[in-house]
Amino acid sequence: MERNKRASERRERSLDSPSAVSYSEKNSRGLTAKMARKFVVGGNWKMNGDKNMINEIINNMKKGPLDKDVEVIIGVPSIYLTYVKSIVPDTIQVAGQNCWKVPKGAFTGEISPAMLKDVGVNWVIIGHSERRTIFKENDDLIAEKVAHALDSGMKVIACIGETLEEREAGKTEEVVFRQTQALVSAIGDRWANVVLAYEPVWAIGTGKTASPQQAQEVHASLRNWLANNVSAEVADTVRIQYGGSVTAANAKELALCADIDGFLVGGASLKPEFVNIVNANK
User: Fold this and answer.
1) pLDDT at position 202, please?
2) Is the N-terminal amide bond of 65 cis, ω within 30° of 0?
3) Contact criterion met (CB below 8 Å) for 108 and 143
4) Which range, of 14-18, 37-41, 168-172, 241-245, averages the lowest pLDDT?
5) Lowest-pLDDT range of 23-37, 112-126, 268-282
6) How far is CA 90 from CA 32, 72, 94, in A?
7) 3-state secondary structure of 28
8) Of the residues 25, 130, 162, 199, which is catalytic?
9) Is 219 among the residues known to form the active site?
10) Is 199 annotated in the active site?
11) Could you give phi then psi for residue 71, rounded to 5 degrees?
């Protein structure tokens, strides 16, 4: 009953502004699909942490309590993956923060999906804005990495999003659709193993965040694009996270949006408030 009430609230909120009308509101199949999509919260630790800090983070998550109806995935620096796997509850998934596009070879400093799987890690984050902007990974490379990770039996959080310059130029949809289009052939019929994470670059680590309406508009537009360019089924079922300075203060309002299915959290995933973010969908 409570979950249905939350879904109803999301639909009502999506109608507050005509520009924020959700894909679900335009498609009767989508109404049922929205309630069926499991909320998913990822915590991306980035290049942070030591064993003492990790113990604190995991202990805080163990105390929780965490909403049992939310899938929780934490992105851990590769050097600590095995350690985290040894102490984390089975209810929390562990993800690599990156991987390369082949199983092995002369690629100093890289890790492969095969290596991640060998230490019991089944998720990986690919295409994060920091990989795109700092390490200059382009759409084609990201697509190759996604394809190989899926070929290797991994599940993928695939990140997309525009820069401030692109948003101010009115190119948000153009950029997000282009980045998603690059992933379509890489994913093929394996959308069940993919979570999309929309992360406006201008709202990552800046303290700024897209308003719920801004975030909802992009999520709804993306779902419409998927319906028109992939399939209605994929549009109905794929989970789309929002990532961009998500905190305990704004998570509940963002979670009310009809087409936001969770969060990819950066800095706040290192803090006790991560528990509140996980529980924002209650």
Assistant:
1) 84
2) yes
3) no
4) 14-18
5) 23-37
6) 29, 10, 10
7) helix
8) 199
9) no
10) yes
11) -85, 125
